[in-house]
Every structure is written in C-alpha cells, then in structure tokens.
Amino acid sequence: MKNSINSLKILILLFLGFLIISCAQIQNASEKPDNTKTAKQQQLESALENRDINLPSGSTVLEEGEGWTLSSLLGVDGSTSYNVKSITFGVALDKVDFMPLISVDSVSGVIVTDWYSLDNGDTRMKINIRVVDQEMTEQSLNVSLFTQTLNEGRWLDNGINAEQSQKIKKSILSSARALKVASEL
Question: How far apart are the C-alpha atoms of 67 and 65, rounded to whole Å?
C-alpha cells in the first residue's frame, strides 16, 4: 500500500511538472514577436498601410493559404489571374492611391474608391475601375468617375463624368503599355 501511495505521488509530481513546463513554453511563445511572415504577407501589409485599406480585426486576408476561394474549390491556380492583370491593375491602383479605397480585388480586376472631396468640400468624386483582360485595349478597361455637388446640405448626383472617365482610362492604359514595353526590354 505504501508503495502504491509513493508511486501515485511520483506520478502526480511528474504530471504537475509536465504541466508547468508546458505552460511556460506557451507563455514564452506568446511573448516572442512573430517574425515568420512570408514575403507576400509583408508586401500585402505594406500595400495596405500605404493605400489606406482597413481590414477588420481577425481578418485572414494576409494569412497564407487561409480562407476559401472559388479557384481553390475548383482546383484552379488562382495566381494566374493576378499575374495576367498585374500590370494594368497595378497602374490603375497607383493612379487612384491618393483616394480612400473601399474595395480592391486583383483577381476580378475591380477597384472601387470612396468619395474624395474637391473644391473645399463642395464637390466630391468616386471612381470605379474594372480591368477586363490583359490586352491593354480600350475594351480592356472600364472606368467610371461619379461626381456629386453639395447643395443646401445635401449631395446631388451629377452622374458619370464621361470625359474625365475617358482621360483616366487613357492615362492608365498609356502607363500600363509603357511599363509592359519596359519590362520586355
């Protein structure tokens, strides 16, 4: 009986020791800074900081391999879409980086800005851009610039400014074509 009590005490002490060591390792791991971010995660975080994009806390956008995508469900490599549109999409994103962004989706090629005030806050604009394909033709890019004016404390829609939309489109395509030529040298 005395041997079984001693064995039980030793077993309990071993268990408690194991528990204490495990807890100490968990605490040490949580105190260490996370330097295991991939280059892609660091690049995306930098882009998010520079472009005024706010993600909700707990978002898995920056985590490698997190979340479900249609391409992953179908077994298609989704990275090819990004590479195809990267030049035109990147140029378009750079052209509107002074504006706050609501939505940026490189896979579908869509950029949606929030309202940006002009003329001491009496006029504001919003731009929607969609990169359709990689061809860099007039049909490859859709740009819509919406404007509103402040009248007696209410914002009145002026509709799409087709002339300015066309100027933005030409500017994006011109820069994208120049980058493509430069990258092929």
Answer: 7
**Which alpha helices (H) appear in 65-145, and where do they start and end?**
70-74, 79-95
Residues in the chain, total: 185
Q: Are 80 and 71 in contact (CB under 8 A)?
A: no
Q: Convert the pLDDT of each residue in 114-164 to its tens digit.
A: 999 987 889 999 999 999 988 889 999 999 999 999 999 899 999 999 999
Secondary structure element (H or E) that encloses residue 152, with its range: none
Largest CA distance in the chain: 96
137 phi/psi in degrees, rounded to 5: -105, 175
Q: Which of 85, 148, 84 is nearest to 111 (CA)?
A: 85
| Amino acid present at 82 | Y
Rounded to two decimals, the pTM is 0.55
- pLDDT (tens digit, 9 = 90+) per residue, 52-81? 455 445 544 445 454 445 454 444 444 444
What is the CATH topology of the domain spanning 78-184?
Answer: Alpha-D-Glucose-1,6-Bisphosphate; Chain A, domain 4 (3.30.530)
Domain spans, the chain: 78-184
Query: Could you tell me where the beta strands, DSSP code E, fall in the chain?
Result: 101-105, 110-113, 116-118, 123-131, 141-151, 154-160
